[in-house]
Design brief:
GMP Synthetase, Chain A, domain 3, binds adenosine monophosphate, 548 residues, 18 helices
Length: 548
Amino acid sequence: MPVLPGLMMEAPLVTITLLQYAARYHPTTEIVSRSVEGPIHRYDYARCYARTQQLAHALSALGIAEGDRVATIAWNGYRHLELYYAIPGVGAVCHTINPRLHGDQIIYIVNHAQDRLLFVDLTFVPLIERIAPQLTSVEAFVIMTDRAHMPKTSLRNALSYEELIASKPETFDWPEIDERAAGALCYTSGTTGNPKGVLYSQRSLMIYAMNICMRRSFGYAATDSVLPVVPMFHVHAWGIPFGCPLGGAKLVLPGAKLDPESLYELFESEEVTVTAGVPTIWAALIDYLRRNDKRLTTMRLLAIGGAAAPRAMVDAFEREFGVPIVHGWGMTETTGSATDTSLAPLEANLPYEQCLNFKTKQGRGRCFIDIKVIDEEGRDLPCDGKSSGELCVRGPWIASAYYKDEAASKAAIDAKGWLHTGDVATIDPRGYVQIVDRRKDMIKSGGEWISSIDLENLACAFPGVAEAAVIAKPDPRWGERPLLVVRPGEGKNLAAPDILAFLATKVAKLAVPDEVVFLQEIPHTATGKIAKRLLRQQLLENPRRAAG
Ligand code: AMP
């Protein structure tokens, strides 16, 4: 049957329209940033848009054109926000880099993305200087500061951000961009091998922004003041920099200071009503509030994601501090969250303890998102709250492939378009998802990934190590920490500090295990793989350790 086309205008869903809208209808709404240079910086959507247009001129003058990749390595701040809009505005792709990655991984992803420019916050200049000779595609480095704060640097063609945009006009004639064009890029760590690029289309970012502005989600409105603790280098701060202009909300960007005292100061002085971050940040905040007898006086919603929200944390916020929480599950591949725990009345009206059971689950799928669990053979499992299997998702803001990585794409996305997440979950008849395990051999520590397999391979390279296994050990502060288990070669006498010192030269600081357990035998499965579940039981649930 031929399609009868609808007779509506085809205005593309592109991100720059969000900032245009905010500048037009919420021009005096503030964007407040704790700058890397020190002082608090304030301006409004009108100024932000004017400077974004200056930046667009600067990018064009540097030859940045549609499809080019432009990288940032920066904290949450106003210049980063301008880059978020100017880069896709000119049709290029804003590639946000996680500074916590190991230098080798940063080299890999910049070269894989073929970034042409790299915008660097002052904090990260030394990090980038160390690896700059290997970033072969980068033509110029822009340091995100003004002339007065420009450091002496070995970076080639180093420019200061403020000088770059200073003399440019404050209006820019934006090109017409196809909404399916890529607008942002973020790499996610794989279980093994190299990081994988998730390439977001402008349309997917827009649909996601609209979704989080719904009342059942975060419902950003002009009465809100929103502080994303989740970094703008990680999955674009779960879409908050796009959702806020759409809702006309004030944006508060905390810069480099993520300790609880600095965050609390901004929460109160900027009358923050919504915030979002990983459990490690919130555990530290709860501790700070208790020790100093403080309250969150303006907060209406606190989002927890990136790792499971512990029941005690949800309880503390809701009952002790009177702050409602929303718990969401998502991945880099899902643009932000695919589920959230805004409860349906049936669950919301249950007695408190039962209600809490639902709030500590990962929530229900958002509109447009299909969710299911499958067994080892790929068969759909019932949504009975008991059958657990791999969680699969699909929808308009879920990755359909990885950037220039056919093997990884094939492994993760099936022929029917389902993304296999590597998380193991149950789904109950009402649609509540509960993550119960993880298939991917990774450890999530303070919201950052550590590859067990990479650590195992490196540990095996240490002289005298016959076999190594790394498991996640629950940790009250970090959620999980890597525990290294080593079987020494026969007659070898190994010392834990030597192995850890060796690993410290090979991996990012946060990935170095805190301890080593020596075992004469490491258990294996029938197929010869290390039996991690058994190892976890043996060492963590029923510890009977060998000497070490
Ligand atoms: P990333 O791509 O770094 O954002 O990590 C995504 C992964 O983090 C998911 O596949 C889960 O393993 C984990 N994750 C994210 N949110 C949650 C949550 N609310 N509960 C449990 N695990 C989560």
